Amino acid sequence: MFKHSLTAKRIFLNAVLLLTVSASLSVTNSATAQQTDYEAERQRAMDLFDEQKFSAAMPILEKLVKIKADDLVVWERLGWSTMVVAGSIKDPTLRKQARDRARQAFLRAKELGDDSNLLRTGLEGVSGPDPGDLTFSKNQQADAAMREAEDAHSRGDLDKALSNYKRAFELEPELYEAALFAGDMEFKKGYTSTDPQFRSDQFDKAGAWFARAIAVNPDRETAYRYWGEIRRSNDPPDRSEQTRSQEPCTLLVVL
Description:
globular, mainly alpha, Serine Threonine Protein Phosphatase 5, Tetratricopeptide repeat, 2 domains, 255 residues
């Protein structure tokens, strides 16, 4: 009977050992799968951000920071995406809440050690006046076209944004931001391309729009700075270097 007892005990211990090993492997596999999923979703969010599709990137970024709270790049991109999307929100209360969330995301990135130009510009943006309280133009049609352009830009629709910026400039040829942002859209369309001829053509178009902005107001430096980005962008884009022309263009940034 004693031998039977030892045998039963051994069987029980072996079963426990197998269950423990199985559970450990399951946890390891689950953690590996979660990490793989995180990296895949992170890359998708980065791609959407680079494509200027901020409204599509934002919910993915929000999910990522809940999974991993110390990824400063994700927090930084979340701040920018939220700030740009906030600019298209018509309800003042909801817009303010979104801008507050953007500010908190920027501050979290800063807390984690982020000191990039992209972060500093974003913090300046959410610390400034709410663009929803400002107008681009006293010309209501031109102002409406600018806001439609900003909304399209927040969705990553560069062609529609460009069309509306051009329309705003046609309605008000003295509207500096219309020419400036039209040039920025032309630049962005070329910036992500690896086709040398297409890049060159787009940069030429961007330069022409920046020249129009300078003609409107030669004392403002923004168009000169944007134009300078063209001269620094003759090589294929380097994603490790953040420049203003990779940033969302909004009224609050350039004023």
